[in-house]
Design a protein that fits this description.
Radius of gyration of chain A: 15 Å
CATH class of chain A: Mainly Beta
Distance between the termini of chain A: 26 Å
Number of strands of chain A: 11
Oligomer: homoheptamer
Shape of chain A: elongated
Order of helices and strands of chain A: EEEEEEEEEEE
Mean pLDDT of chain A: 88
Strand order of the largest sheet of chain A: 9-10-2-5-8-11
Number of domains of chain A: 1
CATH superfamily of chain A: GroES chaperonin
CATH topology of chain A: 10 Kd Chaperonin, Protein Cpn10, Chain O
Low-confidence stretches of chain A: none
Chain lengths: ~90, ~90, ~90, ~90, ~90, ~90, ~90
Amino acid sequence: MLQPIGDRVIIEVEDQPEETVGGIVLADNAKEKPTQGKVVAVGAGRVLDSGERVAPVVQEGDNVMFDKYAGTKVNYADQEYLVMHENDLLAIVK
Amino acid sequence: MLQPIGDRVIIEVEDQPEETVGGIVLADNAKEKPTQGKVVAVGAGRVLDSGERVAPVVQEGDNVMFDKYAGTKVNYADQEYLVMHENDLLAIVK
Amino acid sequence: MLQPIGDRVIIEVEDQPEETVGGIVLADNAKEKPTQGKVVAVGAGRVLDSGERVAPVVQEGDNVMFDKYAGTKVNYADQEYLVMHENDLLAIVK
Amino acid sequence: MLQPIGDRVIIEVEDQPEETVGGIVLADNAKEKPTQGKVVAVGAGRVLDSGERVAPVVQEGDNVMFDKYAGTKVNYADQEYLVMHENDLLAIVK
Amino acid sequence: MLQPIGDRVIIEVEDQPEETVGGIVLADNAKEKPTQGKVVAVGAGRVLDSGERVAPVVQEGDNVMFDKYAGTKVNYADQEYLVMHENDLLAIVK
Amino acid sequence: MLQPIGDRVIIEVEDQPEETVGGIVLADNAKEKPTQGKVVAVGAGRVLDSGERVAPVVQEGDNVMFDKYAGTKVNYADQEYLVMHENDLLAIVK
Amino acid sequence: MLQPIGDRVIIEVEDQPEETVGGIVLADNAKEKPTQGKVVAVGAGRVLDSGERVAPVVQEGDNVMFDKYAGTKVNYADQEYLVMHENDLLAIVK
């Protein structure tokens, strides 16, 4: 299990259907980077200068949108995840 | 439904009339980027260092102006929206 | 009506007399950018980290000076305005 | 009259004697930029995050030194002034 | 023993199996930089503006993930370690 | 007299002995920039966000060390001084 | 004696054995920059926005590690020292 640090969340990126151009399957690096995924773990939250910790608003299982350049890729148990700060999330898809 | 995170708002950009130059319809990337739209969702607001959350001043349904480079485009239910921080809005059109 | 967000003000730029060089009227982009105007709307003010909102010191109707690169141009009701943060104003002309 | 905004001060730059090199008067842009002047107006001061306003320490009439790149030039009533943040002043000349 | 300063942690990087390409062992600088390791020492934590010290959440012995560009390499007792700010850690592997 | 603003100090730079290379006196711009001097005036100190003013720790007459790129040169009464923020001083020489 | 300002520490860099490549002593600028040394003086500490001063955690005599680009070289009494902010230290070697 991965436990994100601070205000980070871990996101399982949605499988994207294979993209084809005129029947030809595109190479991985020719695909659009994903911008949607499912939150699989949430950190304890950011510590304010007042010493208070701000509880994250997203929760495990939330579907979220993010900028395609947000986050850091990590591999865990043969699966790829994105780790990003909660504030890099744009919106929860409900 | 999209629920914006923190101090973000989601904006439905106004349809712009097709631009033509001498009767020729311009390609999409030759159009001016939009700078006005309607707020369709508002986040819970920014958390101050004091721990207090600042309620946004814009509301669902407000018509707003923004800089043409503000925000991130997202697609949801076959419609394009802009997600931006409330502070990137310039003014409410009343 | 335009209601500026946060600590922004909306400024109606002074009409500048047509500039001529040896009797030839200069093109728009050869004119000096304006640095003076009249405040037509004032936002509610900036929120401090303490949660307090700082009331702006400029008021509707004030004549103000600003740097020629300050602000964002917006069009409203066929008139051009500048929107800028109150702190980008240099001085009130009394 | 010019009333500076926030922690700004307005400075009347000292007249500099015409500079000559071997009897030839130098063009304006070949002169050293001024670094000394007289404060002619003082803003209400900067607002701290605590909401408190810090009264400026310089006063109208003070002779001050500043970096030659500090401030913004403004014209008012056919005279040129410099507007700068109080904190860009280096020292009061007593 | 190394005692990290402030909010820093010291990480023993995991031994990575020798990488070979077609039977040829890769030179050190052709290997991927490690992104996982074990925390061997934890600093006292960051001091907030309120004067409070935030106790780190990672502990000695935790397995952690980090960005491959995070931290500074140090040598101690013939072993190489990474020193980084706790906030540069992405997640604890549990 | 020069009264520095805020957390600034005024430093009289130590006379440096003429540098010669093989008996040839070096031009001014070939000399090392000074890094030591005597504090001749001290500002009232920096104002914190809490509104409190931090009294400077250096005092008139202190010999101090600073980085060779720190500070701004000013001329006063035919003498050259350096004005810099107290925090740009490295150490007091006792 | 050198008394560092604020949160600075003064470090006596460890003598490094002469480096030779194939019996040839390397010139000074071909040596690795030192990353370890002994603290010889400690400043009073950094002042927080709350007005509180944070006492440094390192003490005179501590052996410390630092990044090879940290600090400013100063000469005092014919010996070279490094002056750096306490927060640029990586770890205390115990």
